[in-house]
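Summary for the funding panel

The consortium committed to producing paired sequence-structure records for every protein in the target list. Below we show the first two records in order, beginning with the earlier of the two.
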Amino acid sequence: MNAELLRHPKTDCPAAAGIGVDLSWHSDGRLELVYTLAGDLAGLRIPAPGASGRRDGLWRHTCFEAFVMAEDGPAYREFNFSPSGEWAAYCFAGYREDGADLAMAAPALACRQEAGRLELTTQLPAAALPAGARLRLGLSAVIEDTEGKIGYWALHHPPGRPDFHHTDAFALLLSRP
């Protein structure tokens, strides 16, 4: 399945031209996400590859995100992935409520760059996903340019300022295989 992210109309980052996400299930229940950023990569602040590990605050700079809840909600999980190899995972009881680190093994994460394109691939283990036959996903990205401007990208933006946690941002309904 393919999905296209939209830039929030009140944010700007002209070096980023578009972001797509390919989603696929593995036979063991892992969900693979492949984020593809197209644009002028030289005009973007892309974290350099480094040691993989859990780290808070990735959303302050270029990173890719997935918000996942069971179809009936309201509890959800938030996953952040940096091109550096760092990641974060949180669980919430409801809209920004009772946020805590999600106990999970490090997700598989790979990033590669070529002319005009950055691709980040990750796999979320089945145990890290909420239970249920159908999941609601909010796919998003925070893209920072070399001048410090930030563009917020998502499947759907609720009215007002960017808010990836808002229930309306969970715009993709995905059935488990």
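The next record, for a separate protein in the list, is shown here:
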Amino acid sequence: MRDDEIRAALDRHWAASNASDFETEHDIYLDDAVLEYPQSGERIRGRRNIQITRTIQPNKKRFAVRRVIGRGDLWITEYVLTYDGKPSYTVSIMQFAGDKVALETQYFADPFQASGSRAQYIEMMDEGQERKP
């Protein structure tokens, strides 16, 4: 699969994730895909189980993609995942096998207060802003 086709598949995946379209959201995964959450120690095996675990979450979720980078079989998405109004800065690393995801690892980070000691050297970011060099 060409990089532009994978990027289009990722765009569909994240748009479906944001819309809670669970069927389209999970089209990107192989039937035996694996999803890992290192911070909680969870590993979910199989597209169906991945989809079920996301479907049964009671939280209202929103996804704001900031950046997608990759080529070949390795793609990284940086986004803000908001659960019930609380943002979590998230990185998804997807390894493709052909045109589907075989392995995804997601890392989550909660926001924290900026240090006043850096105030003169920084500018504040908009949490949903797309990242560009």
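Regarding this second record: The helical segments are 3-18, 22-25, 47-55. Residues 3-18 form the longest helix (16 residues).
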